[in-house]
């Protein structure tokens, strides 16, 4: 498998640090299906691309709400 095309995965702890939320919040997102993840043994791994998409979507949603005067 080519290193450049191989997907990169993050641990729940790394995702939590990046998103500045608790690990429990990341687990809730995974279990609700809002964040894709694969199970490796007893732990989860989240595709790096999925985290980027979620963060981008969150920034867009937040800016849309502010433009409409919603949420402060």
Describe this structure in words.
The chain has 72 residues and is α+β, with helices and mostly antiparallel strands. The protein has a single domain, classed as Multidrug-efflux Transporter Regulator, Chain: A, Domain 2, CATH 1.10.1660. It has helices at 12-19, 23-32, 48-67, and strands at residues 9-11, 38-40, 43-47. The chain has a three-stranded antiparallel β-sheet with strand order 1-3-2. Strand 2 and strand 3 (43-47) form a beta hairpin. It is globular, with a radius of gyration of 14 Å. The mean pLDDT is 84.
CATH class: Mainly Alpha
Strand fraction equals 15-25%
For the largest sheet, list the strands in their spatial order.
Answer: 1-3-2
Report the structural category. Answer: alpha+beta
Count helical runs.
3
Q: Low-confidence spans: pLDDT under 50, at least 5 residues?
A: none
Helical percentage: 40-55%
Principal-axes shape call: globular
Rg from alpha-carbon coordinates: 14 Å
Mean pLDDT: 84
- SSE pattern: EHHEEH
Number of domains: 1
The tally of beta strands, per DSSP, is: 3
**CATH architecture classification name:** Orthogonal Bundle
Distance between the termini: 48 Å
Biggest β-sheet description: 3 strands, antiparallel
What's the CATH topology name? Multidrug-efflux Transporter Regulator, Chain: A, Domain 2
């Amino acid at each position: 498998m080519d290193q450049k095309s191989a997907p990169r995965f993050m641990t729940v702890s790394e995702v939590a640090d990046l998103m500045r939320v608790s690990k429990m919040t990341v687990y809730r997102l995974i279990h609700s299906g809002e964040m894709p993840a694969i199970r490796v043994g007893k732990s989860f791994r989240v595709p790096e691309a999925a985290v980027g998409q979620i963060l981008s979507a969150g920034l867009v949603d937040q800016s849309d709400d502010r433009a409409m005067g919603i949420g402060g």
